Amino acid sequence: MTTTSWSLLEQAHNALRTTIAEAAEADWAAKTPCEQWNVAQVLRHAAGDQRAYAAAITGAGGPKENPFAPAAQAPGAPKDLLESALEVAARGFATVAPGAEAVPTPLPQGALPAEVAVGAAALDAAVHAWDIAVATGRPSPLDAELSERLLPVARVLAEPLRGFAYAPALDPHPADDATAELLRYLGRDPQWTR
Question: Cross-referenced SUPFAM superfamilies, in alphabetical order (predicted)?
Answer without folding.
Answer: DinB/YfiT-like putative metalloenzymes (SSF109854)
